[in-house]
Each structure stands twice: as structure tokens, then as C-alpha cells.
Amino acid sequence: LFLPSFQDLFGVSMVVPLMNLHIKSLGASHTVAGIIGSLYGIMQLFSSTFVGCWSDIVGRRYSLLACILLSALGYFLLGTSTTVFLFAISRVPVGIFKHTLSISKALLSDLVSERDRPLVMGRFNAASSVGFILGPVVGGYLTELEDGFYQTSFICACIFLLNAGLVWMLPWSEENTGNREHKRGNKGTDSFSAKANRDLHLKSATNGAMARDGLFQSPWIQVATVLRRIKGIACSDLWDIFLVRLLMSVAILLYYSNFSLALEERFGVKPLFAGYLMSYSSALGVLAGCVLGPITRLYQHNTYRILLHSSTLTCTLILLYASALSIWMVILSSTFLAFSTTIGRTCIIDLELTIGGNEASGTLLGVGQSVTSVGRIVAPLLSGIAQEFSPCGPPSLGVGLALVAILIMNANKQKYCSHGNVKLKNQ
Q1: Coiled-coil ranges per the record (predicted)?
Q2: What distance in Å separates the CA atoms of residue 134 and residue 144, rounded to the nearest whole number?
Q3: What residues have CB less than 8 Å from 403, skipping those under 6 apart?
Q4: Using one digit for the tens of pLDDT, what is the confidence trace for 319-331?
Q5: What's the whole-model pTM score?
Q6: How many CA atoms lie within 13 A of 264 on its CB side?
Q7: CB-based burial, 296-307: b 16+ in 10 Å, e otherwise
């Protein structure tokens, strides 16, 4: 699963930076290009919850394969887009079904124990981030060739087809058998291992049974089940977790919203330096995903405490950036912010799954993606308003939002801690 996640973002990041240049070369105005980009974001906003819930019903294998193949179709159509209309049509299947990483995360949460989940999720994010770092470099080289954009789009479609083959080759049928054999072979081991094996086997068997039942349901029954599950999530007591995710997402987006322009206005550095600094932060984010294991062991697998401390550090670092008097303070804040944001993103997902339950992991991850999409829509508007007052306005506003998120976490401390204790006892 780490390899398809790497290839997924590698292929996408080859194409996405070149899309604005391509649509303008087709004769589209800035307004039309913006509308198409916004429509893609809106489709992602509404489809992520439905696709995630659908993966809970029909199973990860079929939903993941469907999303990969339909995304491949979208990038193939993009490679044939010689008019603005064809370009817009090519974004529809990608906008609706490009949730491959979310379903992969839901599959990982099905396969590993809750104790190991932050470590595995961190490595998964690190693998995909490496693809995001390398992709733009390769895409920039390919676009220099004749018809470079079309070639890049076709290569991206081929990468998705390769991912479909890799997912199809995963040992799906052996999963339950493997867990059962492992359980028999460990009867004489300590109670911790035996309990973990029983939990994994029960979870795997339950998810497999649900997938077999859901796959052969009629489409109308599947839609009704999806809507019922979404209603259950909407009426649950998870609102505070999703609100924390929204506030922290907007705070981080505000930090990066006018990063290049603010550095030029405040310190007189060129946009090229800002680009190098963002690439440096991305590389550190990959490293942060690899060190989550020691961090979770240090915190005795208390995800709530890790999230609270990482969010507090993020808030402090954004404040340091907003009040920085020299470029070296900006470099210092960017260095540690790469670690705190990567750890925070992983921990908020783990907390959602811990409190919400693994049986609806696809739905929970889909709702979380929708919440993040709302942040992407809201952040540019807030950034523009705050920037009217000062170049430091957006990050200062981000500090306020992060403080609100920290206060919400403190106010609900008892709920998080009680779930954390139950989680540890069950392991």
C-alpha cells in the first residue's frame, strides 16, 4: 500500500502544477480557469463523505479499484483535452472519485491494531509525501518536450493503471486465513499478543462479511445505507473533533496562504527562496512521518496528548513567524512547523477512528476530508481579508484559530482521555 500511495501523489503532482498553464494555453480566461478549479474543489467536498461511506458498504477492494480506474480515466481524458470544454469534462471523474488515499488509509486502519495505527499512518504519509516532492520536478522536465503536458497526463493515467494492478494483486483472500493461522500459532504467547490477534481477526472477519453483503445489494439500498450512515455521523458527538480539524487546517492554510508575498514584503527575499523553504519543509515532513513510532512510544500511545502538544507547538510557531524580526526566525519556525503539522494531521485521524470506531473508518475519513475541503474554501477568503490590514494578518488570524482549537481540546479532555484509557485496556 505504501508503493501505490507514493505513485499516486507522484503522478498527480506531475500534472497539477502544469494545469493552469495548459488551460490558459487553450484560450481560457483567468475567471474560467478559477471556476473550473472551484468546481473540482466542490465536487471533492461533497463526494469524499459518500465515497468513504460507500467503501464501508461494498468493501475496500472494489471501492479502491473503482476510484483508481475512474481517476485514470479522468487523467486520460485530460491528456486528450484540446478545448476548454474537454478539460472541464476531464476533471469530473477525478473530482468525484479521486479519494484513493483516503480509502487506502481506511484499509490500513482495518489491517493494523489501534496501537500501531499512528506509526503506520505516519509511514504512509511519508511515502506519499516523497512522491509529492519528486513529481513536480519530473513534470517540469517533461513539459519542456513537444506536447509535454499531454505526455505527462498519459503517464499519470498509466501510473494509476499500474496502481490498479498492484491493488488487485494484494492478498485479499488470504487476509482472514492469515490472521486465523497466526492466532492458532500464538496460543502459548502472552495475553497481549493473543488479544491483539483476536481483535484483528474479528475486525477483519466483520469487515469482510459486511463487504460481501454490501457488494450484492441493489444501488438504491446502497444509497440508502450511505445516507443512513452519514446521518449517524452527523448526529454523533464527534463534532468537536471535526471542528478542531477544521480550525487547525485553516490556521495552517493561513500560514502558507501569502507565504512568498509576505516574505518579499517583510524581508525583501525573492520568491525562489520561499520555494526552496517550502521544499525544505516538505522534506522535513517526510522525516516527521518516520519518527512517529518513537514519539508514540514516548507518550505511551496517548494520541490525545500528542495532538494537544503538537497543536500547541503549531500555534506557537505560527505566532513566532507572525512576529519574526529576521529571516532566520522564519526558517526556525518552518523547520519545527513541518514536524508539528505532520504529527498533528496523523493524530487527528487516529483520534477520529478511535472515538468513531473502525467499522465506519471510510465514512469518518471521508467526513474528515470534507472538513479539510471546507477549510481550503474558507482560508483564501479569510486570508484576503486579513491581508488588507497587514502582511502578518493571515498568520495572526491563524494563531487565534489554533488557540480556539486548543481550548476545545482542553474542554473535552475527559472524553478523549476516557476513550484513550479504554483503547489501552483493550490492547
Answers
A1: none
A2: 17
A3: 315
A4: 999 998 888 999 9
A5: 0.75
A6: 10
A7: beebebbbbbbb
> What's the grid cell of residue 426?
483493550
Residues 137 and 234 grouped into a single domain: no
Q: Which pLDDT score is estimated for 422?
A: 40
Q: Residue 114, class by beta-carbon neighbours within 10 Å (0-12 exposed, 13-18 middle, 19+ buried)? A: buried
Query: How many separate domains does the chain show?
Result: 2
Give the pLDDT score at 89: 93
Pairwise CA distance, residues 21 & 4, whole Å: 28
In a domain, 185, yes or no: no
pLDDT band at 183 (very low <50, low <70, confident <90, very high): very low
Q: Is residue 211 part of a domain?
A: no
Q: Read off the pLDDT of each residue in 165-190 and give the average, rounded to a whole number.
A: 54
> Among the residues of 112-218, which ranges form H helices?
117-142, 148-169, 174-185, 191-215
Range of the domain at 245: 220-426
Task: Read off the DSSP letter of residue 269.
Answer: -
Output the CA angle 304-358-419, nearest 5 degrees: 35
Residue 276: CB partners within 8 Å, gap ≥ 6?
none
pLDDT at 406 exceeding the cut of 80: yes
Average pLDDT on 241-266 reads 86
> How big is the CA angle at 85 (ends 79 and 91), to the nearest 5 degrees?
55
C-alpha cell, 205: 472477519
Task: Answer yes or no: do 16 and 156 share one domain.
Answer: yes
Picking from 411, 426, 370, 365, the residue whose alpha carbon sits closest to that of residue 52 is 365
Give the Cα separation of 271 and 274 in Å (integer). Answer: 5
Long-range Cβ pairs for the range 112-116 (8 Å, 24+): 112/200, 113/196, 113/199, 113/200, 113/427, 114/350, 114/353, 114/354, 114/358, 114/423, 114/426, 114/427, 115/196, 115/301, 115/427
pLDDT in tens, 26-81: 888 877 887 887 788 888 888 888 888 888 888 888 899 999 999 999 999 998 98
